[in-house]
Design a protein that fits this description.
27% helix, Purple Acid Phosphatase, chain A, domain 2, 372 residues, single chain, 2 domains, alpha/beta, 26% strand
């Protein structure tokens, strides 16, 4: 009995302004489609007894028609090969209100495709294999439903759920509606537990793993290999199968506190020029840069250094004390305080509020520069 475990394919995700030359669509959107298609290709090659997708098939509750059409096309390939697929809803594809309805209903009519999305524990019987499926649930409901999951009298019992797990290490993404479940709910009696939500491959307990996402969604995943897991229940073995994905390169942080403008330029040129950035998503960070140096950075020159990158993200952190500088009679210090106070009282979803705060301060500093 062999199963393949995939997760967090985030179909419909898009980012940056780069356009795919072949399709004319957003490059990152196409990256995610191609990553999912490669996984389906591999499943058709391996011919497992079942495929388990442990959440976040789509990136949004209301995916685009294009994302839905692509998902249907790929799942039909598995259906026609008579390979059973159990797919659960993750936090990205679970509406906050049940009245909204779920896109997963469109999969219910497909042969051999078993969508589980109603925020409750369901059992799917596949011959000698029983799949105990728990989609994303909110609040106390998650623990309540997870406590109901228990192996049945069958040759093989496999569980799957979409949540962060708290153990000696906390496996979480820091998203607005993620749920965290204590590792004690991962019962050792299951032959395998397919976890979704955490984007890196990880073994949480001896019988429970995250397969990770199909593509990198943040620089926290830079350098982390992406793939899927093949599990041989008969032999009690599993292997991580690495799959191609868009490279993401974090060039680290330059400490600019003691650098003048020329030294800062030289550091940037050395840091970026020493790396092969072609086709990659690249970031370089500069911290403690003076406002004077920041406003005199030639950003056109800087972006030319990484012109071959698919996306280049220079990140500057201006020294806080320099944000009190004046621009055309307007105190950026006052604007800075107003921005921070506003953000502290405003709910920000699906992103790190500290990053939003920092980015806003950068834009304020840049705005003063452009008004000079």
């Amino acid at each position: 009995m062999r199963i393949v475990h995939v997760s967090d394919t985030h179909l419909g995700y898009s980012a940056y302004s780069k356009v795919d030359e072949e399709s004319g669509l957003n490059q990152r959107e196409m990256d995610f489609y191609r990553a999912f298609e490669r996984r389906v290709d591999k499943c058709l090659e391996l011919k497992p007894d079942a495929v388990l997708h442990s959440g976040d098939l789509f990136d949004a509750v209301r995916p685009t028609n294009r994302a839905i059409s692509f998902a249907l096309e790929q799942l039909l390939r598995l259906s026609e090969a008579r390979i059973p697929v159990v797919v659960i809803a993750g936090n990205h594809s679970t509406p906050r209100l049940r009245e909204t309805g779920s896109v997963f209903k469109i999969f219910e009519h497909l042969d051999h495709i078993y969508p589980v999305f109603r925020e409750e524990y369901e059992v799917v019987q596949l011959g000698d294999l029983v799949v105990h499926a728990l989609p994303h649930c909110e609040g106390e409901r998650l623990a309540s439903e997870a406590s109901r999951m228990s192996p049945q009298e069958s040759k093989w019992n496999v569980a799957m759920l979409h949540a962060g797990i708290s153990s000696l290490q906390v496996f979480r993404m820091g998203e607005f509606n993620e749920e965290i479940l204590p590792a004690s709910y991962l019962k050792p009696e299951f032959d395998y537990i397919a976890l979704g939500h955490y984007h890196n491959f990880a073994e949480v307990t001896p019988n429970a793993c995250y397969s990770g996402s199909s593509e990198r969604l943040s620089f926290a995943e830079a350098g982390v290999e992406k793939g899927m897991i093949e599990v041989d229940l008969e032999r009690g073995k599993r292997r991580f199968i690495e799959m191609p994905s868009r490279p993401m390169l974090d060039l680290g942080t330059i400490e600019a506190r003691d650098l003048d403008l020329n030294a800062l330029r030289a550091s940037l040129q050395e840091r970026i020029g020493s790396q092969d950035v072609e086709g990659k998503i690249v970031r370089v960070s500069v911290r403690n840069v003076s406002y004077e140096n920041y406003k005199n950075v030639n950003f056109h020159w800087l972006r030319q250094l990484a012109a071959k990158a698919m996306h280049f993200e220079p990140k500057f952190e201006v020294r806080t004390q320099d944000l009190s500088l004046q621009g055309k009679g307007t105190s950026i210090g006052a604007l800075d305080k107003e921005w921070v106070a506003f953000l502290d009282g405003y709910p920000v979803e699906r992103v790190d509020k500290a990053k939003v705060r920092s980015r806003g301060l950068e834009y304020l500093a840049k705005g003063v520069e452009e008004s000079d």
